[in-house]
Design a protein that fits this description.
There is one protein chain. α4 (67-74) crosses α5 (122-132) and α5 (122-132) runs antiparallel to α6. β2 and β3 (38-41) form a beta hairpin. The chain has a domain at 1-58. By secondary structure, it is of the alpha+beta class. The chain has a 3-stranded antiparallel β-sheet. Strands 4-5-6 form a 3-stranded mixed β-sheet. A two-stranded antiparallel ribbon has the order 7-8. It is 41% helix and 14% strand. It contains 9 helices and 8 strands. It has helices at residues 9-14, 19-27, 48-58, 67-74, 122-132, 135-147, 153-159, 169-177, 187-198; strands at residues 6-8, 31-35, 38-41, 63-65, 83-87, 98-102, 111-112, 119-120.
Length: 208
């Protein structure tokens, strides 16, 4: 049940460990507390995915990476800092150092678990980013998602129909629909597009 070097106390109890047995392993340096009710196994140091998994486990069942942390998991880096978690429960669940969102009605279609890490799917992740980031950052994220073959903009536009009336959908749809949106390969291309529009030039080719 260990995933990415971490395990939750509840998982240990389900395996038959007693509280004394867990304490004994902590004292012997076999388990290292790294988050609320979560332990690193064998060594204290964790990689990035280990830290993400520890954060998810510390928030209990139904928790998953979301927003900027989900984007980073998918390989889409943003300027957001800290670990962001969504919990599918209505009750408050706060953890020091984590930004926790409560969304008890989050549908199963928006949840994925690649490599055993619960995380919002790429469409939900982009919708969440569009609700919280500036347009330029969202455009970069959409470009990066396409470059990584996570989802193409035309497919994303279709998928947005399942998220109508949710925060983030309107600005994301507007960005995808506007005449100057084009997939770009570089930041310079992305910055040049609105300048071309303002100057009255034809929409330039990109990714050439």
């Amino acid at each position: 049940m260990r995933q990415h070097g971490v395990i939750a106390r509840g998982q240990l109890l389900a395996l038959g460990f007693t509280s004394n047995a867990i304490r004994h392993r902590i004292d012997r340096g076999r388990l290292f507390p790294v988050a609320h009710g979560v332990y690193a196994v064998g060594r204290r140091e964790l990689g990035r995915k280990g830290r993400w998994m520890a954060a998810v486990l510390s928030c209990g069942p139904g928790a998953l990476l979301s927003h900027g942390s989900a984007a980073a998991f998918w390989g889409v880096e943003t300027e957001r800092r800290g670990i962001e978690i969504t919990v599918r429960v209505a009750s408050p669940r706060r953890r020091p150092g984590l930004r926790v969102y409560r969304r008890p009605t989050l549908p199963d279609r928006d949840v994925a678990s690649p490599e055993g890490v619960p995380v919002t799917g790429i469409v939900r992740t982009l919708v969440d980013l569009a609700a919280t980031l500036q347009p330029g950052a969202v455009e970069r994220a959409v470009n990066e998602a396409d470059r990584l073959d996570l989802i193409a903009p035309p497919d994303l536009r279709v998928e947005l129909e399942a998220h109508r009336c949710e925060p983030g959908v309107k600005p994301l749809r507007a960005m995808l629909d506007r005449r100057t949106f084009r997939l770009t390969r570089s930041e310079l291309e992305r910055l040049f597009l609105p300048l071309a529009k303002k100057a009255g030039l034809p929409v330039p080719l990109t990714k050439q």
